[in-house]
Amino acid sequence: MSTLQAEHVYKVFGRRADEGVRALRDGADREELRADGTTAAVIDASFSVEPGQIFVVMGLSGSGKSTLLRMLNGLLEPTAGRVLFDGQDLTALGAGEMRRVRSTKISMVFQHFALFPHRDVLENAAYGLEVQGVSRAERERRAGEALELCGLGGWERSWPDELSGGMQQRVGLARALATDADLLLMDESFSALDPLIRRDMQDQLLELQRRLKKTIVFITHDLNEAMRLGDRIAVMRDGRIVQQGTAEDILTRPADDYVASFIQDVDRSRVLTADAVMDEPTADADACACPTVPADTPLADLCAVSARVPHPVAVTGADGAVIGSVPQGRLIAFIGDEPRPPMACVEVAA
What we know:
One of its GO terms (biological process) is response to osmotic stress. It is a single chain. This protein has 350 residues and is an alpha/beta fold. The protein has helices spanning 17-25, 30-35, 65-72, 95-104, 121-125, 127-132, 136-149, 165-178, 195-212, 223-229, 247-252, 257-262, 268-271, 274-277, 283-287, 299-306, 328-335; strands spanning 4-13, 39-49, 54-58, 80-85, 88-89, 106-109, 183-187, 215-220, 232-237, 240-245, 293-294, 313-316, 322-326. A six-stranded mixed β-sheet has the order 6-7-8-3-9-10, sandwiched between helices. Strands 2-1-4-5 form a four-stranded antiparallel β-sheet, with helices on both faces. A three-stranded mixed β-sheet has the order 11-12-13. Helix 7 crosses helix 8 (165-178) and helix 8 (165-178) runs parallel beside helix 9.
């Protein structure tokens, strides 16, 4: 069973929201509704997130991605459609039941940290547990463990204004992790950070995910961030999801011209891997003692190997057997690099 499912979800703002949904289902577009004083923020959104996945929703400002996120935890009620969490229809819950779900099963990390300036780091990290009614000793223990996981051990009694932006965001992440919620929602959580700190936080999230295997929905307008973090990605435009898939799917098979233009500046060499571009194995690649590469090798690293051998680079599977090969011309076609003359085959140590 999927951890999270959205089924034909709409969010329309205005006095005649239900009429707006009917019009959209009949083929009307956003501009037609806007002329009548109705705003369609999310239109017919459907997707599923499997346990342990990072599902990234990506789009420009106004695409509807943050509105969609707020319907996943009941902060906004869908105009139509359903949101199911572990089989439970969240859209059918009363306000009190929804608050209990939010306090125990769904945590959220905001863009602007949302820390309490009058509480120290430990108290901020423990706030969600305090709302749950957990005893002080227990919540401080669990909050301390979450801070340690986020690299903030030793900062428990510091104040938020004593921390850098990246450290403050780590406190927000620790607060979400301390509740041990099944689902983590992250709304542009790293976009307010400087580029180097932002990448460090991405590294931190990926490392935490390797250890904790949380189910995460991550909102971003940054395509490179989406490609780096997402197990699966949904691209939104004008309230609609226009494509879903892996980073490889979106880079190699864009659904339309909009997605193609959106991805044109992505550093493909850091996103695509050898198994995404390989052809069938060749006799030359399999027979000599030239270097081979594992299937998950980024194209940036594959380039260095391709420049040193006179034939397609052999790609190996988990058992070490050759499963494919990457000709230099195919590699160049995917990343737009210039070819370099290969060296002759050389014997390499095992």
